[in-house]
Amino acid sequence: MIITFITGAHGNLGSEVSKLFPQALTPTHKELDIIDREKIFDYIAKHKPDRIIHLAALITVMKCEENRDLAWKTNILGTKNLIDACMDYNPDVYFVYMSTPCVFSGDPKEAPFTEESLPSPKNFYSLTKLLGEMVVRFSSLKKKLIIRGNLVPRKKWPYERAFTDRWGTYLFADDLAKAIKEVVDKELTGIVHLVGDKKLSMFELAKITTPDIKPMTLDDYEGPPLTQDMSLDTVKWHKYKITR
Question: How many helices (H) and strands (E) does the chain have?
Fold first, then answer.
């Protein structure tokens, strides 16, 4: 039997991915913090997973700006802990890293971005995810995949308003989970974009689950720099329809 280990298995995406890998190892953050290098090494040594789907990350732009140390440790050093442990105890593991479209500039003139586009992170969150990618890409693991994709949970929009001038090729978390299972089952390697077949503004996306959502623009926003156009394209895989 293939042993699958999912980090971040209880987050918005991880909970959906875990449903599709019902036999997977899915420790909670409290049970296994990827920052704790010793515990990670002990866990990998004990279970020797055949594949790791690494979804755990600090993903909120504001939180990453406010606590850069935690973002660095989680998104970069946590990833390195997993890979180093695998190199010691199971170098043949298939390692899957979930990244983000935010590694790109977000310039509408440059979008959509393919797997071959040049990254240009705009905030600290984006930087940490790109550096996490680098940790994976330049590791000595033989089988590794970096996935980039836009996602939101299929639930009520968490804010009162949504941007009309920020865009992406979004999928709901359950849609993206199915796409992840598809590429994991085929053991794709390299970098792949799992993308929706339609470009939507955040406002259009929010209206699907929250019809009374109110519009806003980037002019109404105060905070760290945001990527404006997160639209992805793919030259390596196929696109998916966002289900409603």
Answer: 8, 12
pLDDT bracket for residue 107 (50, 70, 90): very high
Per the listing, tokens 């980037």 go with: 218
Question: Parallel, antiparallel, or unpaired for β 161-163 and 4-7?
Answer: unpaired
| CATH number of the domain within which 140 lies | 3.40.50.720
Residue type, 167: W
Residue-number span of the structural domain to which 52 is assigned: 4-154+170-197
Say if pTM beats, i.e. exceeds, 0.85: yes
Edge-first strand order for the sheet with 4-7 is 4-7, 51-54, 94-98, 143-148, 190-193
Q: What confidence tens digit (pLDDT) does each residue in 120-146 have?
A: 999 999 999 999 999 999 999 999 999
Average pLDDT for residues 155-167, to the nearest whole number? 97
Closest by CA position to 167, among listed 209, 196, 126, 128: 196
* Residue 68 lies inside a defined structural domain of this protein: yes
d(CA 118, CA 136): 17
Residue 48, sorted as left (phi over 0), alpha (psi -120 to 50) or beta, turns out to be left
Tokens of 123: 């905030």
Q: Confidence band (pLDDT; 50, 70, 90) for 27?
A: very high
CB 208 within 8 A of CB 155: no
Three-state DSSP state, 53: strand
